[in-house]
From TrEMBL:
InterPro entries: TniQ. This is TniQ domain-containing protein. Residues 384-393 have a biased composition (Basic residues). Residues 13-162 form the TniQ domain. Transmembrane segments: none annotated. Residues 384-422 are annotated as: Disordered. It comes from Azospirillum melinis. Residues 412-422 have a biased composition (Polar residues).
Length: 480
């Protein structure tokens, strides 16, 4: 019997059953593997039969919210009840989860209208030990649904970070299922090695050892896993524990986590590390290279590898819990000054617009955390007022003046600024115009061929003047 004759009836004589916690695409790839077909080809054959216009050639879009027709066609081909397959779809399994809480291959913020778009391709991680247990139990290895959750960077069963790079060749290539002993094995699409093999090669992960350093790493991982558990609870509209932000409604908990992640990834061109997250590096959560935001791509945590997501969550926790900061962040020096991760630090690090955005957003946060930020904002505002008071001889404000100027809005705050504002997109365009004006000014053209020191001084003077003028024009003159 040829593959063609098998498929013509669209009822497959042999189709592996799906696992309850499996990704729909993982199941279809395992089926395709039985017929030595690419998953996209099988999908095209089974779901667009008779439609000769455009065949679906990838697995993109299958996992999130597949159409009823597609599920019905796949179920009938595999002789499965429709419900058995439809419950595998992410939207059915987790109806309350927003799309950006899944791990996607990429995402982009539309610079025109600020809407977010994600790739249709999921980017799941995996756990070697889970795959190796599948083999030991004599089942097919398969991709778990929760490996595609942006809120989960660990295997909670084995207390190990999920992988997204092949441990043999270190590439992040596509995963493939290959036939093996009547079953299927998940392999690296690049070097072809089965990924479960790595676990059998012996314990190599830090947590497997018991030295002091590794006990600390294990503790740091447990803290982040506990946070992940609460994130998933909140995404399921269940109340998270009060450990992180005090008594929290699920929506407030999610909002605060998302906003702190945005703030950690917001750009500050004037600082050597550019993005706050680049200050967080530790043995438990090593930074996988410096985070850089691409020009018109504003990543949210859903579009970064699991290693980056873990360090983002670790950073959020160290902002929330002072007592855990030392376990989560090993570096205490940035250049020549001592650094402690804290919400206070993050707030002071942010630019003016970003601070205003965070404060506006905090109206949605759990009350204790909102009050904490309010206090920090007030203190910063008082400190700044005192600083300006010393610098300029202006008439003294009435008593309580600085507090009256506090940037914190009431709880009836309207629509907060868009993410693009928080991330400095408008700022960037604004400053680009300023820069263009400076670079075409007669003062700058006059020193074009002067020494670097002269050009630097001139540029500094022109920038200061332009920024001061723009602040006055936009009503951000400040107290002086
Ligand atoms: Zn595992
Ligand atoms: Zn490989």
């Amino acid at each position: 019997m040829t593959v063609g004759s098998i498929l013509a009836s669209t009822v497959l004589p042999l189709a592996p059953r799906p696992m309850d916690d499996e990704l729909l695409s993982s199941w279809l790839l395992r089926v395709a593997c039985r017929y030595d077909l690419d998953g996209g080809d099988l999908r095209g054959i089974l779901t667009t039969l008779g439609d000769d216009t455009e065949a679906i050639l990838t697995m993109n879009g299958l996992d999130y919210r597949p159409t009823h027709q597609e599920i019905a066609a796949l179920a009938s081909a595999a002789r499965l009840p429709v419900e058995r397959l439809s419950t595998l779809a992410l939207k059915t399994a987790n109806p309350t989860w927003p799309r950006h809480w899944y791990a996607w291959d990429w995402g982009a913020l539309d610079p025109i209208n600020g809407t977010e778009r994600y790739a249709d391709a999921l980017a799941p991680g995996w756990c070697d030990l889970c795959l190796s247990e599948d083999r030991a139990a004599g089942r097919h290895t398969y991709l778990r649904r929760h490996w595609a959750y942006a809120a989960v960077g660990f295997c909670h069963r084995h207390h190990l970070p999920l992988r997204h790079l092949c441990p043999f060749c270190q590439t992040a290539s596509t995963l493939r299922f290959v036939p093996s002993d009547g079953g299927t094995r998940l392999s690296c699409g690049d070097c072809g090695r089965p990924l479960d093999e790595y676990a059998a090669a012996g314990p190599k992960d830090a947590a497997a050892s018991t030295s002091t350093g590794n006990i600390l790493i294990d503790h740091a991982w447990s803290v982040v896993m506990a946070f992940e558990t609460d994130l998933c609870r909140a995404l399921n509209h269940r109340t998270p524990t009060a450990r992180w932000m005090g008594l929290s409604r699920p929506a407030g908990f999610i909002a605060a986590t998302e906003d702190l992640i945005v703030a950690l990834m917001a750009g500050q061109g004037a600082y050597p590390r550019e993005h706050a997250i680049n200050a967080f590096d530790s043995a438990a959560f090593p930074l996988s290279g410096k985070f850089r935001s691409r020009i018109d791509l504003q990543y949210w945590a859903c579009c970064v590898p699991p290693a980056r997501r873990r360090s983002l969550l670790a950073a959020v926790i160290s902002l929330l819990l002072d007592e855990e900061a030392s376990a989560l962040v090993s570096e205490s020096w940035i250049g020549s000054y001592r650094w402690t991760a804290s919400l206070d630090w993050l707030y002071r690090w942010l630019g003016e617009h970003q601070r205003a955005w965070l404060v506006a957003r905090s109206a949605e946060w759990p009350e204790l955390l909102r009050q904490r930020l309010e206090k920090i904002a007030d203190e910063t505002s008082v400190r700044r007022a005192a600083h300006h008071g010393r610098k300029a001889s202006v008439p003294r404000q009435k008593a309580g003046g600085p507090v009256a100027r506090k940037p914190f809005p009431g709880k009836t705050q309207g629509t907060p600024p868009s993410t693009s504002q928080a991330l400095g997109l408008q700022d960037a365009a604004h400053y680009r115009h300023l820069a263009e004006a400076i670079l075409s000014s007669p003062e700058w053209l006059a020193v074009r061929h002067a020494s670097p020191a002269v050009r630097r001084r001139t540029l500094h003077r022109l920038s200061e003047a332009a920024l001061a003028a723009s602040r006055t024009a936009h009503g951000h003159a400040g107290p002086s």
